[in-house]
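At your convenience, could you comment on the folded chain following this short note?
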Amino acid sequence: MSILTRYVIQSHVGPFLFAFTAVTGLLFLNAVAQRLEDLVGKGLEFSVLLEFMLLSLPHIVALTFPMAILVAVLYAFSDMTGNNEVMALAAGGVHPGRLLVPMLGVALVLTGTMLYFNDRVLPESNHRLSSLLSDVGSKSPTFELREEVINQVHTVDDTRYFLRARGIDQATNRLTDVTIYDLSRIGENRTIVAERGEMAFTPNQRDLYLTLEQGVIYETTDARPGGFQRLYFDTQIIPFRGVGTELERRTGGGSRGEREMTIAMLQTRADESLQDVHNVADDMKSLSERAVEQALEVGAADDTRVAQEDRLSARRDHMLDEVASESRVTYHRWSVQYLNVYQFLVEAYKKHSIAFACFVFVLLGVPLAIRFPQGGVGMVIALSLGIFFFYWVGLIVGERFADRGQIHPWIAMWAPNIILLIPALLLTVRMGEHMATNRGSRWDQIRYWLTGPLRRLRGGAGPKAQMAEEPAR
């Protein structure tokens, strides 16, 4: 390793460690603070709280690692250019692209490291964190309840309650589309259906109160066979006594969500869902063929049995209703499996895209820092936030569209990288043509560079003429 290569790499170590530590610390404290209040006051051991914080860290690292790389590159090269080190090397015959070569090698290593982290470390930590929160559910039914599943709620007096919810927000304790089966009274059955609900514990964390809104209560009793009572309510409070228990850690893998799977797992699930799509498509084809055959049979019957026109018409209508109903169900199955394919692929491509962003940020940051060195720390922060904001907004928006099946997952996840890669390549190619020094390279130069195309349209002086006039000022 040459002295120049070692010097360039070492100049990035300090800024990277500082940016990575600072940004990770801020986001980590914010993330832990949002969840920690759900855990404190429940008698959990310190080791459980420490495990929770450690398992929450990898998700933050996945965000801050590429950001720290971008900050380090911008700061290190702007500092080198501001001290005229790049200009001195260029005067000695060293092209600025020579400084980029070792950083691209480091970027490839960091990209591979980030890909391994996203594929192996992050899914496992997310799964263990989800399991931990589920185990804490023994002290909080909000964590223990599963969506779209009939859950039995245990109380201190062995009252039989069964609860089902379409959506459960573990952070806010809110439920949507709630159904409760109350079998607490012998000879009586009561079913409660509500649009939404919210759970709240008593200060000792033992009793739970469920507040339901906009619902209906259906009651039946053995004393009135065949009859039922229906009551509408705006707000209904249901107490669950003694639901808090000791924390029990469960063993076993358990089911994994999309963000808890490796790339291989996601690809396998996507292939399985794609096979289901083909199977449903075959069912739709068979259904269409059967509908045509039945229609032809009914038409032939009309020719031979004109006297039975009314009966055949009723039969035709019934057949069409059955075909339409089966078609709707089959199409719904096809849509669900089709979206599942996209959702699994989105998560797989996202892991690759975030890892490759490390390479793109290095390729984009070096020419930007050399062109505008004297903006100082403010310029480094502004450019870093702007680039990273654009990248993550593009990633989030693309994920939303891909999850709805409106755009291919590969395009959705790789579009931010491709968009940033284009100006990065253009700036890299022209990196030796325009180099700034300590003089005239502050925010006014950034403004001058951005407004260059507009001045050329108006017939003003171009950038080269401006640079020629600069020494005379």
